[in-house]
């Protein structure tokens, strides 16, 4: 009987704490977040009218990296499966798009290039689907391995992918690579012309058009991942990360969920690969090596494992930093353009976010998003001796302290 009565008492304590904390929240703060989101979206929409082409191309590269980082975060941060094969799935998406939508003809290193010359949207969709299929085919291995063993097994896919890129010349162009066809949708080209487009007197060429494409794809990837984590499969994946035994006892099909999340993560990587190919305009074997997989791991660790927003922040930091350093190498101390002495822009950027990774692991395992959550919790903490603090003191005996860092994988 005492056990039966204790649960409602705890529930009443939590309800009382919630009721006392809600009146303290200003209506202004309640509406501030949606207003800021709308304002940010408006700024992103009008930005091409005011910024240079460099920033627009950097933004599209960041959008592609955000899509890939969110996919890897679902696999590593949410379900706890270490994978170093992300570069392979990016390559599958990029190659599929280039081959399906590319033209035949021209010369590779040893053979004429081939292409199906299908609409680019078909190439993009097939790139995403084939990347997901590749992840699904690898999932039986992933379902039987964990930790470093899974990481080493997935690493083999990267070496296989680089070998195929170098030798399948008619499709990939060999070690010289091949150019990527422009993206178009229902007759509207995302290239520099056809049709000629002006907005408020500003010419909208390839950089401006790809900017909006990147916003749409990155936003869709973000919303889908957030909804997935809030759904029943998302909670099952988090349980799977914490304990496979506990997840199995609760009725979660461990192998099936591992296979599904690997497939979803690979599809994200395939879309990211298509966007990466469109961003640089060509594909080559060195663009999909082991370094790319390591950089994506750096993105999700810096941003915060298990956080969709953290993955986006980490992707923006890791992707934009080398490009910004390269653009402003002449004014930054110790940084110089290639061949001019000093530290190259790409090397300096790697030093910086390498140091950032060490600092995050040591002092803030929650990543960049964990820092933001820490400041937000401090702002919400009631003052000592206030009525709300007194009313909620009973609830704090059973609930976790707000100052505690979020558990790894938190999506708050």
From TrEMBL:
**Membrane spanning residue stretches:** 31-50, 56-75, 82-100, 120-141, 148-168, 210-229, 261-281, 287-305, 312-329, 349-372
Instruction: Provide the protein's localization.
Output: Cell membrane
Q: InterPro entries this protein is in?
A: ABC_transp_permease, LivM-like
Bias (Low complexity) occurs at 9-18
Regarding the membrane, this protein is recorded as: Multi-pass membrane protein
Chief place where the protein resides: membrane
Q: Pfam families given for it? A: BPD_transp_2
CDD domains named in the record: TM_PBP1_LivM_like
Where is region (Disordered) located? 1-23, 378-412
Alphabetically sorted, this entry's keywords are: Cell membrane, Membrane, Transmembrane, Transmembrane helix
Q: What is this protein called?
A: Branched-chain amino acid ABC transporter permease
Its ancestry begins with: Bacteria, Bacillati, Actinomycetota, Actinomycetes, Geodermatophilales
